[in-house]
Design a protein that fits this description.
disordered N terminus; mainly alpha; single chain; signal; 11 helices; globular
Length: about 270
Amino acid sequence: MFFSTLIVVLIPRQQIQAIVLATTDPTSELWDSDYMASVYSNDSPEVITPETIACKILKFYHRSRKWATYAQDPTKRNQKFSLEFIHAAQSILRDIDSWDSQIPLDWRCAEPDVVRLALSQDHDTAASSRVAASFLSLIRACEVCFYSSAIGIFTMVDSGMNVEGDGTDLLSDIVQKMQLRVQAVIKNICGNVHRVLESNDEPGVLQQGHAAGAYHVLWPLWAVINCPFASVDQVDKCRETLGQIGSTLGFNLAFLLQEASFPLGLQK
């Protein structure tokens, strides 16, 4: 279980890196399109995997850069276009909810005191807990990219539009729900980063033995820093954590991400 989880952790990180490329160059092609095609060909509606969600979010984010140009042009912005985008987002939301319901209870982000007690009692539990936390933080980082891009485009179209055409679900309601979700996801990332870097003897002090987990939370920290829905305190703490990882473990990428600015939200 430990090693299989470690392998799966690598998948979302590559998707996030591809999202960075799409952010800086909207004309860029999707990361490894052949690989993504194989993921979709093996996709089962009964089983939602993190790999599938990450690929769908990457595809959605890449397309959102093009959708944004239509959303800003009144002559091209129409209900058919808007509904296509909204339904694509709703499909990802359903997948996220389905996968969330399958997460083992012991993988979920616990209160710091509970985590500290568990880590101090069982070394194996500590290792497993950190792997789970780094894995979840990567998936949540993909979700941050998804929510940020979706909300950015939704705010460009008619907020009073009926999503299903029956007047029961307005676009403004979906935006509000997404804003609450992304704030909860950011809080979850911050909690899981704390869980990954937690020191048994010195809480808050990063140790050399946490290098693997620290490397995997670099991109989640970057996602929080660049999310327009993160609080100033969350951004400052994540930026500070990147600096600590860079100086303590010698990860130059941490310093690069600490200073890099790639706004995830699409603005008018």
